[in-house]
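Objective 1.3, modelling of assemblies. Example input:
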Amino acid sequence: MRLFILGGDGFVGWPTSLHLSAQGHEVVIIDNLSRRHIDVELKVESLTPIASPAERCRAWREATGKTIHWETLDVASEYSRLVELLHAWKPDAVIDFAQQRAAPYSMKTPRLKRYTVNNNVSTTHNLLCALVDAEVDAHVVHLGTMGVYGYSDTGSAIPEGYLNVEVQGGDGQRRSVDILHPTNPGSIYHATKCIDQILFAFYAKNDGMRITDLHQGIVWGTQTRETALDPRLVNRFDYDGDYGTVLNRFLVQAALGYPLTVHGTGGQTRAFIHISDTVRCIELALRHAPRRGERVKIFNQATETHRVRELAHLVHRQTGCPIDYVHNPRNEAVENDLAVINEQFLALGLNPVRLHEGLMQEVLDTVVRFKERIRRERIPCVSAWTRAHDTQLSLPPAIDDALVKQPKLDALSCIGELAS
Amino acid sequence: MRLFILGGDGFVGWPTSLHLSAQGHEVVIIDNLSRRHIDVELKVESLTPIASPAERCRAWREATGKTIHWETLDVASEYSRLVELLHAWKPDAVIDFAQQRAAPYSMKTPRLKRYTVNNNVSTTHNLLCALVDAEVDAHVVHLGTMGVYGYSDTGSAIPEGYLNVEVQGGDGQRRSVDILHPTNPGSIYHATKCIDQILFAFYAKNDGMRITDLHQGIVWGTQTRETALDPRLVNRFDYDGDYGTVLNRFLVQAALGYPLTVHGTGGQTRAFIHISDTVRCIELALRHAPRRGERVKIFNQATETHRVRELAHLVHRQTGCPIDYVHNPRNEAVENDLAVINEQFLALGLNPVRLHEGLMQEVLDTVVRFKERIRRERIPCVSAWTRAHDTQLSLPPAIDDALVKQPKLDALSCIGELAS
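Predicted structure (tokens):
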């Protein structure tokens, strides 16, 4: 297949591009490099020293003999050029990662709330509009988020996109219908993914567009088989309070002896997936496109759920790193249960990588290798969901290295047995 | 109350501004004059010769001694100035009409699809973001549309915003919950109103914002008590294929002897409201704001439902104007039933103006007065929902005046009795 990968320079986009190129697909990355610009803005870089786009493509060619094409383009603002590229390449599928994807960043300032809405909505809508405009019948595969469902305890497992309900009919009889699962976004970022769903449903209905939306859990890990082939192919690794996902951030904190910052009680249950499963899921979704005229196909792209404080305890037990319960900057339920149905990917053959299978060690190895690059003052999340939360936020803790118990990294190799 | 009225120059915004000023509220109109620009773009003007903003305000002062303030501002792009105005005026409520509101216009070209999404989403989000930013605790009253629900026949009356459903709990028991009614937008324009709902729900939950969303039916009529006070206060009247609403368009066609163009079978049932009820509903909504922390308050702002072909037959019987069944440019159900619950406004004291109460004559009087201004080639809707619909669209019919039976306008004064 010929594939456009929007946002192919990012944390999930890059390993996906390599994986699909390795599978023999013709890959065209389209990226505006916004994530690299945000690194500069936030004064924190990827823990791993990621190579330039040109160097990444060169390294891939040298390692595998395969070519990845690259177009620097802002999908949110360069509509005409997007249409030109669709005409020129006529892709079979477009995989869309081109969105601002950090919840804390989306809540940080009015400017960033507005940037997130404008960028994410315009990107999604420009893509859909351009496909109709260019008359390209490509399958759209979009990265959504489990966060569209909200995390309130409904007492039952979250179905894959559609919820079966009974409603009262005009004749007084109750009847059963499938509806798009009601949304309950927890941040502006999450709200944009709910908005995407509305646009997808409309274009699927009105234009017969074939669309798959992948409601992904929190990604952890960093390397995949392909990114490990050459140091210049290394994937980005975010550990800061805005872009660092919770487990990755704990592992960085452990490696530094920086107390594991748990928000609130840590009673939040979240869904997780390892980066190498993410790329496999996207491959499976590509192979199983909906038919023209079919409703949007929605997968829950998550393999397990964990309570945040349990993850902290797990890392604490292995490394000795203490836990610091800090005020939660998010406006959310203190504790929640969460169960997620992910039958579709399992049925398609996904064999999930679990948290306890030793991959935490690989992450720690990466952290230790690049430890000198860490800016520890960027680790806490200082993005407040409301003004009231802001005033309660503690400042980044001052760390006295002498008082912090040094992490016992060696012990982590046995984490698999302990956690299982 | 001190009120900001965004889009206060428009078809609903202007009579609402006058009505609320007449009630003693301090009114600040904020408008970017986009609707007047679209007149130029579409090469068709309001049937009624609307005065300039300055002249409108002057006439209002002369007629009533009251002042309406006016700020020309694009809410979608001039965020900083919006925040400044909120700081300066500290309004008690903001009424938001500042949206591109024509479904056919929103489907006309890729450029207009994108304009509608960008303009409408940015306006809504900028307003919400600015209110939090400026720390102004204003009640937001927004004009939504009945179109968010879709018009598919669910067999039961459409509730006001929230649908009671039974879902399967984790324990196997079914339980009853209220959810935001599932959306099924019929155009890009309607999709933006569904998107608004997501943003409103988020800001109500996260920031405790007090928001009322009014899901309005199709407005008919043109004048209210206040717009009739002076010719310079006249409200705009759209009759073209993009902005003209169905009943107003039929009345213009009848006055011209231009066959009444019914899309498809005319079996579409729609909800209607007269312009003077619209302004009263907004006044009622203002007086009954939700409490801080309460969910978004949603009203169905419609007073009656009619099948489109029944409206055409009604106008035909009175005027003799023939009916022309043309290809439907919209991608929608051929026939649908529709029942709408509007108990909330009735409970608050709304005494609806019905279609059969003689107001059609007033509209016809207006049309006849300004008949010379009509550009008949702009009457048909030539905006196609998909390319397939485009190729089936008939061109604007050539009209031979000699063949068209002249409308019997006098007969319309008895339409009330006949239709009841």
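Chain A touches chain B through 53 residues (CB under 8 Å).
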